[in-house]
Design goal:
single chain, Helicase, Ruva Protein, domain 3, Zinc Finger, Delta Prime, domain 3
Length: about 325
């Protein structure tokens, strides 16, 4: 595939550990493994888009050099999550000898928390039996879903959400490489949308750059179907002032005219309420309502009815506490 047609999240994926931004302490410790030439089993945990997969691939590149793909294999546990994938694919790779004079191979198991309990039990035994020839790097969003016997066999690295400055730095670098001009307000919009997820940030940047090489905040919010912070503030202010009809109008504009997903709107309301100055009792009541509506939507309830109910509850709670 031509580089010009490669999606940016792959085109600008770091190939060296030193190129990964926002995880300095973890990268320094991983580099120490390369210097010593030894590697334990690893468990990478953290939210999406923070560099777990990139770190695993970059680590393999630095261990094995140009022949890294001969001794590295990536599997996604969410594709096949039962015991058969451990007994067949994982065990078969682990038991074969390393190639090219390498001391060991690396098997990277992404979304390992999707494995069933039986599969994890079989994986534990495989990790123990073939430790001499194969190192395992497990990646997951929730380490609590990984059984204790596996966790105790791994050095655990907790990747944190990327800082706003790390997102800005990488977005500026990509913008310069692509020769596009990004306004400061657009960078702040990208940071707001990304929430520490570099993939979201890069996708937002590429989406906004499709039609023009000059990007402003409005284009970023439009291309990502995200409400602007001032629109969320308008919804909250109108609701908490007791104006149900006005809040309903704002809600309809966001959901139907702007096409913003209800779950995204709930998430943005939550972020705004947490930061907003208000009585703590009111804040607790509003967040409780957000949680209730979010659960109902996940269970398949009517979107329009539940979002109207959310605004109604905001109005009622405001009258109760104010």
């Amino acid at each position: 595939m031509e580089e010009s047609h490669t999606i940016w999240i792959e085109k600008y994926r770091p190939v060296k550990l030193s190129d990964i931004v926002g995880q300095d302490e973890i990268i320094e410790r991983l580099q120490s493994y390369v210097r010593t030439g030894n590697l334990p089993h690893l468990l990478f945990t953290g939210s999406a888009g923070v560099g777990k997969t990139t770190a695993a691939v970059a680590l393999a590149r630095e261990f094995f050099g140009e022949s890294w793909n001969l001794n590295f294999r990536e599997l996604n546990a969410s594709d096949e999550r039962g015991i058969d994938v451990v007994r067949n694919q994982i065990k078969q790779f682990a038991r074969t000898s390393p190639l090219g004079g390498a001391s060991f191979k690396i098997l990277f198991l992404d979304e390992a928390d999707a494995l069933t309990s039986d599969a994890q039990a079989a994986l534990r035994r495989t990790m123990e039996s073939y430790a001499a020839s194969c190192r395992f790097i497990l990646s997951c969003n929730y380490s609590s879903k990984i059984i204790d016997p596996i966790q105790s066999r791994c050095a655990i690295y907790r990747f944190r959400a990327l800082s706003p400055e790390a997102i800005r730095k990488e977005a500026r670098r990509i913008a310069e490489m692509e020769q596009i001009k990004v306004e400061d307000s657009a960078l702040e919009a990208i940071v707001y949308i990304a929430q520490g997820d570099m993939r979201k940030a890069i996708n937002a940047l590429q989406g906004a750059a499709i039609l023009t090489n000059k990007i402003d905040a409005d284009r970023v919010y439009a291309i990502t179907a995200t409400a602007r912070p001032d629109e969320i503030e308008e919804l909250l202010c109108t609701s908490l002032s007791g104006d149900f009809e006005g809040a309903e109008t704002v809600l309809h504009r966001l959901l139907h005219d702007r096409g913003i997903a209800p779950n995204e709107l709930i998430n943005q309301c939550y972020r705004a309420i947490v930061k907003r100055k208000m009585d703590d009792s009111l804040r607790v009541a509003l967040i409780d309502q957000l949680g209730t509506i979010d659960f109902r939507l996940s269970e398949g309830a009517s979107t329009d009815i539940q979002m109207e109910a959310l605004v109604a509850q905001f109005v009622l709670q405001a009258k109760r506490f104010c």
